[in-house]
Amino acid sequence: MNVWTLTAAQRLERTEAPLPAASEGKIRVRVTKVMIGGADYELCAGLIKGKYPIVPGRFAIGLVSDESGGALFPKNTRVLLHAFCPAPDTGTAKKDFAAEEVEIRGLTCDGYLQDFVLVSPDEMTPLPDSISDSDALIVHHLALAKAAADKLKAMKGSHIAVVGGDRLGILLSLLLIYQQSAPILIDKRPERLEFARKCGIYYTLPADDALIDGVAAITGGRMAEGAAYIINSDGNDTSLPFRVCAIGSSVVLCGINRNPVVFDFERAIKREIAVYGVSNASDYLETAINLIANKAIDLSAMRFCNHDISELEAVLAKYAAGDDYDFSDVTILNLV
């Protein structure tokens, strides 16, 4: 089978490897599609530190390829492969309490840019026929959005500020609308605000000097009853979620990539704002699948761009050339 391995920064190699051998409690899956994003390019370019050698690819779907899955995962079952998995059990070895409890596919452990993988039943979820392959690849983003919305305890009619208009910020805003809240999407990039309006997000504000007055006008002077800060949304000011929130509200810091971000919590302490972090929404994957299956979220504005796996180098080269990939574009590599 084919395996694409990053042996060092800027050194992605395709090699031949034997099919994964059968293992107790593991099921062999044929990887069919992998979503590639900016974080994958940054890993390949050495902008994100990785453990070499490593196979990239966090978000993928596939087909069960053998009969070991039993009644739950019969052969040819289409599955969502999980981006997060439990860290290996250290057994009797002394536990490193500084270590992460969860591994991230394609970042801290091998990802899905390979023809076949061996995974346990709890590392994949069956996909209903009503969900397309393309929609399935953004399930993790919607799951994180749902986890953030639940952490905020957004009530019907409440104003929730969403700082960051990337894919996650857009999905969170659409989810809040579905839950009958009133999101206020904030971003420093006007093209993102324009796209948000095309998606049906009514309240959009630029992250400029008039922001606070704008939020006050929308909320009748009460300010937002909660806020989410999207960590990966191109460096919006980290003070914004605390500046636009009412006293005693909540702020959720969430991101799919876990990039390092520095926050000054002085304002949060003075305003008695509760702060939560959300980065792994594995428990929400089935909920996200149901939301998509029931058409609760309109994904029609997303542009799914399919490429053959032979175009991998060209896709990465476009990132390297500095081309500004539209956040609404979902880049998919077809392995089959």
- Could you give the distance between the termini? 12 Å
Average pLDDT value? Answer: 89
- The count of helical stretches stands at 10
Radius of gyration (Å): 21 Å
Topology-level CATH name of the largest domain: Quinone Oxidoreductase, Chain A, domain 1
| Low-pLDDT sequence parts | none
Under CATH at level 1, the class of the largest domain stands as: Alpha Beta
Shape: globular
When the domains are counted, the total is 2
CATH architecture label name of the largest domain: Alpha-Beta Complex
Number of DSSP strands? 17
Brief summary:
The protein has helices at 38-45, 133-136, 139-152, 167-178, 190-198, 211-219, 240-243, 266-270, 285-293, 312-320, and strands spanning 2-8, 11-16, 27-36, 59-64, 78-81, 84-86, 102-104, 116-119, 124-126, 159-163, 182-187, 203-206, 226-230, 250-254, 274-278, 303-308, 329-334.
What does this structure look like?
The chain folds into two domains: about 1-140 and about 300-335, Medium-chain alcohol dehydrogenases, catalytic domain (Quinone Oxidoreductase, Chain A, domain 1, Alpha-Beta Complex), CATH 3.90.180; about 140-280, NAD(P)-binding Rossmann-like Domain (Rossmann fold, 3-Layer(aba) Sandwich), CATH 3.40.50. Helix content is about 25%, strand content about 25%. It is built from ten helices and 17 strands. The strands form four sheets. Strands 3, 4, 5, 8, 9, 16 and 17 form a seven-stranded mixed beta sheet that branches. The protein has a six-stranded parallel beta sheet with strand order 12-11-10-13-14-15, sandwiched between helices. A two-stranded antiparallel ribbon has the order 1-2. α5 (about 190-200) links the parallel β11 and β12. α3 (about 140-150) crosses α9. The radius of gyration is 21 Å and the shape is globular.
